[in-house]
Amino acid sequence: MSGIGPVESVDSPETDGSYEVIGGDSPRLTDRWHTLPQRTRRAVLAAAAVAAVALGAVLLPLHDRRQDDPAPPVPWPANITEWRYIGLAQTTDTPTTTGFFRFAVTVDSGPPVAIRVIGAAFDGLTAQAVPNPTFTVSTGTTRRVTVEISVSDCSGLPLNADLAFLDVTLRNTRAIQHHSFIFGSAYSKDLSQLLHRACGTTKARPGPRPSGSAGSQNVDLG
């Protein structure tokens, strides 16, 4: 006989069946997912799909509204342009047929407005901005402008200017408008002085009314 003893089975009752595990992973979420019943997994997937569709229905209209909302329309130039009379650019007591009047012009909003002075209330007067007949006022700014008014014909001119005004054209990217801007007593007084110096012997007559619409006029009560 050899010296080799009997072979023992690993399931021998003399062993407790325990063994040492070196290393190991904690349970993962995917492991738990696979242990769920198939019906439960289908229900969870269906609920997730419904939630995704609902979220898309909320976010997509918000995105579309941002893309589709039209830009506000460009305002009419007469609605955003304001004129204010400041005073005479120079004074004189000598007879003269020309006067220089100072104004402050403001554009409140929208694109810049190009402006040209084309008249000074009465037939027999010419008017233009100097040194540049056409000038541009940017949005949110005020520009000081000198307007030269000359007497070209005294016949029938009123010596006392009541509600004196300027005729101008206003142009921005929306439209070109012709409007009259009325000014108060200070401008009327200064213009009347020019008329008296130039046409002191002329018989007075009533002056015309502004040609622009009432909604386009900016009144200076100074």
Give the helices and strands, then pairings.
Elements: H1 29-35, H2 38-68, H3 77-80, E1 81-88, E2 98-107, E3 113-119, E4 125-130, E5 134-137, E6 142-151, E7 165-171, E8 176-182, H4 185-198
Antiparallel strand pairs: 1-2, 2-6, 3-5, 3-7, 4-6, 7-8
Provide an overview of this structure.
By secondary structure, this protein is of the alpha+beta class. It has four helices and eight strands. It has helices spanning 29-35, 38-68, 77-80, 185-198, and strands at residues 81-88, 98-107, 113-119, 125-130, 134-137, 142-151, 165-171, 176-182. The strands form two sheets. The protein has a four-stranded antiparallel β-sheet. Strands 5-3-7-8 form a four-stranded antiparallel β-sheet, with no helix packed on it. The longest helix is centred in the first third of the chain and has 31 residues, at 38-68. It is rod-shaped. The relative contact order is 0.15. The model is unreliable at 7-13, 17-24 and 202-222 (pLDDT under 50).
